[in-house]
Amino acid sequence: MKDVGKIVLAYSGGLDTSVILKWLQETFGAEVIAFAADLGQGSELDTVREKAIATGASKVYIEDLREEFVRDFIFPMLRANALYEGQYMLGTSIARPLIAKKQIEIAAREQADTVAHGATGKGNDQVRFELTYYALNPNINVIAPWRDPHWQLTSRSAMIAYAKQHNIPVPVTADKPYSSDRNLLHISFEGGILEDPWQEPDPSMYVMSVAPEQAPDKPTYIEIDYERGDPVAVDGVRMSPAQLLAHLNELGGKNGIGRVDMVENRYVGMKSRGVYETPGGTILHAAHRAIETITLDREVMHFKEEIMPRYARLVYYGYWFAPEREMLQTAIDASQQQVTGTVRLKLYKGTCSVVGRKSPCSLYREDFATFEKDSVYRQADAEGFIRLNALRLRVNSLCRRGDHG
User: Fold this and answer.
1) From 38, 156, 179, 333, active-site residue
2) With 0-12 CB in 10 A as exposed, 13-18 as middle and 19+ as buried, what is 399?
3) In the annotation, is 16 catalytic?
4) Averaged over 105-115, what is the pLDDT?
5) What is the predicted pLDDT for the residue at 52?
6) Residue in 12, 16, 79, 188 annotated catalytic
7) Residues 224 and 341 sit within 8 Å (Cβ to Cβ)
8) Is residue 179 among the annotated active site residues?
9) Which residue is catalytic, options 12, 18, 66, 125?
10) Which end of the chain is more exposed for a tag (fewer CB within 10 A), N or C?
11) Side-chain half-sphere of 265: how many Cα atoms within 13 Å?
């Protein structure tokens, strides 16, 4: 590692990054600037500035990135209908490249030669942070304390002792039964009591949603307006991207929407059990797919379905700023030019059902699809279509029977 002069640390104000801030100063004798990103985690940021200064940070940046997060990261991902391994809506994955991007920008502004993060050596976040660092500044110096040979604080008790020793102003409490990460798209829970995949999560754990059993007995109907693949209004009221997602989080949460409990494959090679709440994102995923069903050409839709898993893996693995993700995004965005219209949904006890869709760009034609008499489709033409498509099947069947004619 090159000589370290000034470090920009991705800082949350919790025990881990507060200890890391002090450890970086002691280990490298460097000035440390703390950076916290406001991605919609709410009151968690209330005391961050005071904690960072009290722990020794020379400067603290707290940046409100909520609108940028939803507009430039979440919405492009939703246009792709991205789900990792069929379930995970990538709430943590999509936040990391934005945090890392801002870290690099602050490092350039402050003429810092080094960035640091608190991700462990067993998780995905270390990859997501560092791939972004190097994509945006190939010469940046990176410190990952959990992988550093000088790091000896390998347990929570050791970190608590270090915090007491250095008068670090963080709550010193017993182990949480799990770890969590929250932003405008979701909240995640993993580790601790959740490491047993047979163990059902404690109902009191959930933050953004009520249990479906406790949701209202009357369904909630909503309408979402889309323009070129992005949601712009709910029930006729136009909102900014962050406002819209926050509003749907509230509606979805009240109706028990968006809970997922899954075992996923981490990029670093192990399986991990994660529990997620993504109420607004779940609604937008269902709504976007619905508006696409009447506005996308069949082959375009099928092509999107084929590339979606690859796109989702790129986001999950941390390749947001890789050329292949950007190439896929260009193709996806080109498909969205006519994805405009309105979707009506019913939210009821944990379910999100599409009950209506309409668009001025609709490719659905009732006069083509009707079972009644029509003048645009000659049913007799289907015979030739079927016989031509069956030709290879017939030839295979003849060969299997030994009839080589």
Assistant:
1) 179
2) exposed
3) yes
4) 98
5) 95
6) 16
7) no
8) yes
9) 125
10) C
11) 6
Is the residue at 30 inside a domain? Answer: yes
Q: What are the tens digits of pLDDT across the range 336-380? A: 999 999 999 999 999 999 999 999 999 998 777 666 666 677 889
In this structure, the answer to whether residues 54 and 109 fall within a common structural domain is: yes
User: Among 96, 128, 273, 289, which one carries the catalytic annotation?
Assistant: 96
- CATH number, domain of 249, equals 3.90.1260.10
**188 is known as an active-site residue:** no
Which positions ≥6 away from 85 have C-beta within 8 Å? 262, 264, 265, 312
Q: Quote the pLDDT of residue 39.
A: 97
Residue indicated by tokens 């829970």 = 189
C-alpha angle 281/285/287, rounded to 5°?
Answer: 115
285 with 236, same domain: the answer is yes
Per-residue tokens: 186: 């979701």
Is the pLDDT at 178 greater than 90? The verdict is: no
Domain termination site, one of 136, 165, 194: 165
125 is catalytic: yes
Give me the CATH number covering residue 11. Answer: 3.40.50.620
Domain count, the chain: 3
Judge if 133 and 190 occupy the same domain: no
347, 283 in Cβ contact below 8 A? yes
For residue 388, the enclosing domain spans 375-400
Residue 393 has pLDDT above 50, yes or no: yes
Q: How far apart are CA 41 and CA 63, in angstroms?
A: 12
Band of the pLDDT at 172, cuts 50, 70, 90? very low
pTM summary value: 0.94
What percentage of the chain exceeds 70 in pLDDT? 95
Among 175-184, 224-233, 362-371, which range has the highest average pLDDT? 224-233
Residue 90 CB partners (closer than 8 Å, separation 6+): 77, 82, 83, 84, 185, 312, 315, 316
pLDDT, residue 379, reads 87
